[in-house]
Structure formats: C-alpha cells, structure tokens
C-alpha cells in the first residue's frame, strides 16, 4: 500500500475521523476523479498517524450492481455511533432526487453497505450533504441542505432520525436560508443562492456553531452561524464575514490527539485541483477564528 502526502490526493469535502482504538486518523471525501460528469465509482478512505503521511487509498464503499444511484457520489462523513460506523453520503440518478443515504460498517475502513432504504432526506426534495447531530437529550438528527437548484434560495434543514439511524422521523425543519447571511452572493448569473456542507461544532462553553459554505465574489467560502439558544431549533446568527474565502469550503472540525483544533476543507474549488487542507483554529468565548 502506497503512502501519500495529502497534497497528492485529489479530494473534495474532506472529513476526518479520529479513531481512538488505533490512535490514527481516517480521511474520507468525494474521491471520484470527476464528481460532476462521470459515473460514480465509490468512496476511498486514507489512514494516517500524523495527518501528513496517508496510507491508501482503501475502497471504503463500492456499489453493488443493483445500487439505485449511478452518479454524484458526494461528501461522505463517517461517525462512530452505538458501536458501529455510519457513513452519511449523497447520491443521485436520473429521474430521482439527489439525497443523503446512511451506510454502515463495523470498522472505519469499511466496507460500508446501505443501511437506510435509499435517501433519508425527503424523496421529493433535491438535497445533499447530510451530517449527524446528537442533541442535548441524546436524540439523533440529520442536518442537510435543500438545494438551490430546486428552490433558488438554498436552505439548511434538520430532521429527526430513528434511534438506529436508518430512517427519518417526522417532518424537516428549516434552520436558515442562504440569503439570511448578508455576505452571500448568487451563482450562475443570479440564478440562485447556495447552501453547502453543514457541520455542527459544540464549543467548550456550550455555544452551538454550524459551519456551512456558499459563494462570494465567484469564490467558494466557508462560514459560521451561531445558535442563539444553543440548539438547532433556535435563531441562527450569521457572522458578517466568512472565516475563509480563498475559494475553499465544505469544512468540518476535528481535534487532534494532541488537542489541537483543526478546520478541514478543500481548496481550490475546481476539479481536478481540489485538495484537503487543515487549518488551525482558536476557540474563545463561543467563537472560532483561524489561528494567526
């Protein structure tokens, strides 16, 4: 198995799982060479002890012949939950709305297999980028995007999940829309406003933050929203400026074994140049900023 620097790995939507039992990190992402046009291959995963040298790729997911989706294999996240590993990933096929499905495995390397019966996002919504969130009562939710391609002003929504994470319960709630943030600018000559890549971070003081991405000045940007009541059903306050706007986004936050807080995102936002980067963060008084 080869060892690569992350700069050698083409990847969008990077997601890092810190795996305590092995003392290593697993790196997932959208790893098909062209996620926009080519037939979906699957998701690869890489493994590292130091976040610099990565073993791989390992085939984390490959679809069976009867799998419902054949394209747009996007944004896999893997969460340890109740003794298993759950992958939340986006899929699409012609005539079927894009959506996030839940897959399951016994180990971070996989192989991941379908767990939910197709997408757990609403079947008549174009959706993407589902992420797991467990609320203060220990109840699981999925936070996801309702796409601008269907509703023009994209939104970020949440829906309760079953205890087994295999289906949605009840109706989705809207957290906020892209245009709620003053910094967001339209794409495609004004056709719509993008919401991408939600990820929840709970600060040490209990503040709940939500990372998400959109566009400004034609470039992909990473932003942060803040819950006024510390839960997902509260009012979300938008910081006036993105935390990162150098044509990168779809981020997540993880803590190293040494205790350092890092923001993972991809940049530039152009195929096949996209690469994962890890940026040190400073957390203070319920806020985050890039370390100087």
UniProtKB/TrEMBL annotation:
Site feature Important for catalytic activity, responsible for pKa modulation of the active site Glu and correct orientation of both the proton donor and substrate, where: 129
Entry annotated with the keyword Magnesium: no
Gene3D superfamilies: Glycosyl hydrolase domain, family 43
Record's keyword terms, sorted: Glycosidase, Hydrolase
Protein's UniProt keywords contain Membrane: no
Pfam families registered for this protein in UniProt: Glyco_hydro_43
Classification via InterPro entries: GH43_arabinanases (IPR050727), Glyco_hydro_43 (IPR006710), Glyco_hydro_beta-prop_sf (IPR023296)
Record-linked CDD domains: GH43_Bt1873-like
GO terms classed as biological process: carbohydrate metabolic process
Pathway linked to the protein: Glycan metabolism; L-arabinan degradation
GO molecular function: hydrolase activity, hydrolyzing O-glycosyl compounds
Family from the record: Belongs to the glycosyl hydrolase 43 family.
Protein name listed in UniProt: Glycosyl hydrolase family 43
Natural source organism: Cohnella phaseoli
């Amino acid at each position: 198995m080869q060892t690569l620097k992350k700069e050698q790995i083409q990847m969008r939507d990077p997601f890092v799982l810190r795996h305590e039992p092995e003392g290593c990190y697993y790196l997932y992402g959208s790893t098909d060479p062209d996620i926009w046009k080519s037939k979906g291959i699957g998701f690869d995963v890489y493994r590292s002890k130091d976040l610099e040298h990565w073993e791989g790729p390992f085939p984390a997911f490959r679809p069976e012949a009867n799998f419902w989706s054949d394209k747009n294999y996007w944004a896999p996240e893997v969460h340890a939950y109740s003794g298993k590993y759950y992958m939340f990933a986006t899929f699409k096929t012609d005539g079927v709305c894009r959506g996030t499905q839940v897959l399951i495995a016994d180990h971070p390397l996989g192989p991941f297999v379908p767990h939910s019966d197709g997408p757990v996002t609403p079947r008549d919504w174009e959706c993407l980028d589902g992420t797991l969130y467990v609320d203060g009562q220990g109840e699981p939710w999925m936070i996801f995007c309702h796409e601008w391609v269907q509703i023009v002003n994209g939104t970020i929504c949440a829906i309760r999940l079953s205890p087994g994470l295999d289906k949605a319960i009840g109706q989705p709630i809207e957290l906020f829309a892209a245009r709620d943030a003053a910094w967001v600018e339209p794409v495609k000559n004004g056709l719509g406003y993008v919401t991408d890549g939600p990820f929840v971070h709970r600060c040490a003081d209990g503040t709940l933050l939500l990372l998400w991405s959109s566009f400004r000045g034609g470039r992909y940007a990473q932003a942060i929203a803040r819950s006024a009541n510390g839960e997902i059903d509260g009012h979300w306050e938008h910081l006036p400026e993105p935390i990162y706007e150098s044509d990168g986004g779809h981020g997540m936050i993880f803590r190293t074994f040494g205790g350092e807080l890092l923001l993972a995102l991809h940049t530039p936002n152009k195929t096949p140049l996209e690469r994962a980067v890890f940026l040190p963060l400073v957390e203070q008084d319920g806020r985050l900023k890039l370390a100087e």
